[in-house]
Amino acid sequence: MIPSALVDLLCCPVDGSALIHDGNQLISASGTRYPVINGVPVLLPPDSSSDTLECVRASREVSLGSQDDPLFIDALGCNEEERQGILKLAQAPDSKVDPVVNYLVAATCGNLYKGLKGRLIDYPIPKFRVQEGAGRVLVDLGCNWGRWCVSAGRQGFQPLGIDPQLGALMAAKRVTKQLGIKAWFVCADARHLPLRKGSVDFGFSYSVLQHLSHEDVALVLTGLAKAMKPEAESLIQMPTNAGLKGLLHRARHRFKPAAGFEVRYWPLRKLREVFGRLLGPTDFSVDCFFGIGLQAADARLMPLPFKAAITASELLRGLSRILPPVTWLADSVYVHSRKA
Fold it and tell me: What's this model's pTM, rounded to 2 decimal places?
């Protein structure tokens, strides 16, 4: 079963029609049936021709078959080494950290976290930049195992996490339950956002849109704008092309255009133009320097050199509030828009 309040927010990803909850299925006006697995609606378009990741196809297939794997590893997008590591950790009943999170941490949090893979002693939950959620519905696009849903939930938001990886969403359900956070999760493709018009109070995404082509980013933002209420806000992290780390990365690749799931580095003026046109008036604030994903709350988990990088990043972030032009040198920014 899924809450009626969640069903009221959802729609068919193909035709936008309302959905009827019928047992372990949601049914659209055209009769398309979508499975509900362990309380998670799987609202992936039946046509797989536009899938960008193998895990999307895997999630669709797993949701339609037998669910004999409680971890849904086939719908995680992990390699064989990670699979074996997850299965080994799953046999340790005293583990404080979910085994899936323990091995997905580098993929979801950034290269700085590679050394923690399989060795996490606590969840890296960042601090949400917006406080006083007051029960507002916040959609987290590409939520994966739910770290930002936990963060937003602690600030009083009602998080709704959306991700195409069913296995990651099952981990998110386990983590939020373990940490006492009420959150909803939906397996969906953000380019085919299954949210009703005017249903969302706050849009959020971190380290996700940076992997999409400019055309797919436009699709996501168009769908998000439709789902947002009038005057609703969005906060979306994006990497910039002027930050030191981004420049070094692109130089190593001889400034070749990104392809596939590679990171795209955006000029701030382009971000302002695209987000402003599709969402509404747009401004920026610094996320971090010296990379993508450095979070002050995670310094306690890091070795000394990485602690120093995080400290320096936070100092520069503070300086950007006094000298706004410093923002243009950040490696990662938050794009803050308000629906016009």
Answer: 0.95
